Amino acid sequence: MAIEVRPATPADLPYVQASLTAAFHGSLVAVHDELIDASALPAAVAWDGDEPAGLLTYRIVGTDWELVSIAADKPGSGAGTALLRWIRETAAAASATRLWLVTTNNNVTALRFYQRNGYDLVAVHRDAVTRARALKPAIPHELDGIPLRHEIELEVRFGEV
Ligand SMILES: CC(C)(COP(=O)(O)OP(=O)(O)OC[C@H]1O[C@@H](n2cnc3c(N)ncnc32)[C@H](O)[C@@H]1OP(=O)(O)O)[C@@H](O)C(=O)NCCC(=O)NCCS
Mind listing the pLDDT tens digit for each residue in 104-156? Predict the structure, then answer.
């Protein structure tokens, strides 16, 4: 069955919190020197039939759309791709000029995933994860043998020729 993405409703809040806890050790996401309660943001849920399969949260500042979090319950199931397609189409339909996000230097799966889906590298924010750890001590120091230290910013720009 194809994955379907729909905006989250108040009834989805338990899933939103469970998904954020599973993927990010809680609903607080520490990025670019901010602690953001992702469970309070607009969100979209990927559905595999009647089962939720993934979550995306985002926020809008002017015409800039920020993808704050994305996670699939079972990586490789297509939920992530469906969620990225949804946010891109939704942002474009709302006349966004930029859709952007940060990932961390260890996350080579996400870096591959975003670039294969048309996101372009913008910047490396050195030691941003080290600073984020002061806001959220649960951020691990190392994953897959890679020290977590830096944020990598990627974007899609709309309306450029
Ligand atoms: C990154 C993530 C959201 C992608 O979602 P997904 O549902 O797994 O993505 P899809 O199933 O649509 O697959 C996308 C591609 O990644 C590949 N992939 C997914 N998980 C993988 C893994 N663990 N190892 C290797 N490849 C993987 C898929 O095979 C697919 O490859 P393709 O482009 O060659 O077809 C998901 O892996 C995830 O939840 N990761 C943990 C949370 C996270 O890191 N979020 C990003 C924070 S910035």
Answer: 999 999 999 999 999 999 999 999 999 999 999 999 999 999 999 999 999 99
- Binding site membership of 42 for ligand 1 (Cβ less than 6 Å): no
Q: Looking at ligand 1, which atom is closest to the CA of residue 107?
A: 44
Domain edges within the chain: 3-157
Q: What is the DSSP string of 38-94?
A: GGGS-EEEEEETTEEEEEEEEEEETTEEEEEEEEESSTTSSHHHHHHHHHHHHHHHT
Question: Span 3-157: which CATH code?
Answer: 3.40.630.30
**Which residue CA neighbors atom 17 of ligand 1 most closely?**
76
Span from the CA of 93 to the centroid of ligand 1 (angstroms): 25
- pTM here is 0.94
Helix (H, G, I), strand (E, B) or coil at 124: strand
* 115 CA from centroid of ligand 1 (Å): 12
Strand partners for 47: 4, 52
Tokens encoding 151: 């944020």
- Ligand 1 atom 5 nearest Cα: 80
